[in-house]
Each structure stands twice: as C-alpha cells, then as structure tokens.
Amino acid sequence: MTAAAWSLVVFVAFQVAARCFLQVEGALASIVIAEEVRPDRRGAALSVLGMIAGTSGAAVLVLKLVADAVGDWGWRLFYAFALVPLLIVAWLRRNFRETRAFTVAAETERVQRSFFPHVAPEHRRLLLGAVVLSSGFGLASTPGFVWAGNLAEIDYGWSGLYVAILFSAGVFGFLGF
C-alpha cells in the first residue's frame, strides 16, 4: 500500500499501519516460539528470529543497488519487494495450527473473546510502562535510522562508508543475538 501512496499524509498513514502489522507479526512469532519450542532450544530459536529480522539493513542495501540500476522505480521498489514476505506470512497464517497453550486455554474456556483484552488491575501499570517504553523506542529509532541514512548519503556523500556501516551493524546485531 505504501508504494501506492499519493501524498505524504497517505504515505505516513500506510506506514503506521504497516509498522503496526510488522510489530504484531514479530510479537506473534516470539509467542509461538516461547510456547512451542522446548526450553533448551528456546533461546536459540529466538536468536534466529532476531537474526532474520536483523537482515533488513542488508536487504535495503541490495534493493538500493537494484533501484539505482533500474532507475524508474525509485523508492517504490522497496515496497514492491515487501510483497514477497507478505505473501509468505499470509500463507503461514493460513497453514499454522494453534499452539498447544492456546488449545489448552480454549478447552478450559480461558480464551478471551472480546476485542479489548481484560488486564488484571495489578498488571495494568506494568503493561502501560511496557507500551510507553516500546513506543518511545520505535518513535526514536525509526526516524533516527531514516535520517541517519539521509544525512550520510546526501549531506556527507558517504555512500560507500554508509554501506560499510550497514554491514558492520548487521554483524554486531547478529553477535548481539
């Protein structure tokens, strides 16, 4: 949808929806891993998930090189490329079974069916803190990444160095996981 944006306001609205979708998918993947992978392998599985998510910098680099070579697509190529993982996620969503924890909760009638989940009063403050913390991180990191790239490429002409920084950041991200 972002590639079809006809104005800045529409672009921002589509990006908000897309980023919410990505965050939910990442959270769901972590939940499935936490519920389905045996405890001695859980950390490794979460690390692999983090490593896959960390490849986005390298993917952007490759797409930038392709976009520069193709010319006419420009920035819209990045969003057209995103259709591939979106189709994979759609297929996975239709073909994955529910987790065992969900099945047990459903059998004992502990699954909440309301749109807004019930949060026990003693957990509401912790949930609000987690939401504020993760939202603040997203608000700071997203424009920081975008503007750092803009500054490096346009204002400083660091295209080669910026590429090296992206690759080294990916390596340190993998090591961190």
Primary descriptors:
single chain, 177 residues, mainly alpha, 8 helices, 79% helix, globular
Short recap of the structure:
By secondary structure, this protein is mainly alpha-helical.
Model description:
Helix content is 79%, strand content 0%. The longest helix has 35 residues. The two termini are 31 Å apart. The relative contact order is 0.08. The model has no long low-confidence stretch (mean pLDDT 78).
Furnish the topology, listing elements before pairings.
Blueprint (H helix, E strand, L loop, with lengths): L7 H29 L2 H15 L2 H15 L5 H6 L1 H13 L4 H8 L13 H35 L3 H18 L1
Quickly count the helices: 8
CA-atom Rg in angstroms: 20 Å
Low-confidence parts, pLDDT < 50 over ≥5 residues?
A: none
Helix/strand-derived category reads mainly alpha
The succession of helices and strands, N to C, reads: HHHHHHHH
Name the beta content range: under 5%
What is the average per-residue confidence, as pLDDT, rounded to a whole number? 78
Q: Please count the beta strands (DSSP E, at least 2 residues each).
A: 0
**How far do the termini sit from each other?**
31 Å
What overall geometry do the principal axes of the alpha carbons give?
Answer: globular
What kind of sheet is the major sheet? none
Fraction of residues in H or I helices: over 70%
